[in-house]
Design goal:
With 162 residues, this protein is mostly helical. Helices cover 61% and strands 10% of the residues. The protein has helices spanning 3-12, 19-38, 44-55, 61-68, 72-84, 106-127, 132-145; strands at residues 59-60, 88-93, 96-104.
């Protein structure tokens, strides 16, 4: 690209129209709200894992990856840390001795019960700037972008086109 084309493209490019930039800024905002409301001694991913385990005791690592969207290697490390904190219990799967099953401990349940109202408040604050109608649309769009609510009749390409 020559200098003239570069300058033209740079003039036309807007950070406020760039989805990746806006997602990053909103990610930072949601993190700040979470820490302020919930605390910094437990992460959003740890809360997600505890919620998933509370709903599915005896889940495998694959089950938890599916439920939370946390990648497999991060999940493995997180589980190790949460076991050492006494929030999660890990044992060999009786059906497959190579696999592990996880359970939330009583300590994990106590933490989750104590923090869940704060987590719900953080979620309300994160989405508060939107009208009720926009909230519904926004959440649906986030699920679509994450591949969670994809219409089975539509294939979405890498560039987002259908």
């Amino acid at each position: 690209m020559d200098k003239i084309e570069f300058r033209r493209r740079l003039q036309m490019f807007s950070l406020l129209e760039a989805p990746g930039h806006l997602l990053r800024r909103n990610h930072q905002r949601s993190y700040e709200i979470f820490v302020r409301v919930v605390g910094d001694d437990v992460t959003r991913q740890q809360i997600a894992l505890l919620v998933a385990l509370a709903k599915q005791q005896g889940a495998s690592q694959s089950d938890l990856v599916e439920a939370t969207g946390i990648d497999k290697s991060t999940m493995k490390e997180m589980i190790g840390r949460m076991v050492s904190r006494g929030w999660v219990e890990r044992e060999r799967d009786p059906q497959d001795n190579r696999a592990w099953v996880m359970k939330i401990t009583e300590g994990g349940c106590v933490l989750l019960a104590e923090r869940l109202p704060r987590v719900e408040e953080a979620q309300r604050q994160i989405i508060a700037p939107l009208s009720p109608v926009d909230r519904e649309i926004f959440l649906r769009c986030l699920r679509l972008m994450a591949g969670i609510d994809a219409d089975p009749g539509q294939d979405v390409s890498e560039d987002g086109s259908i």
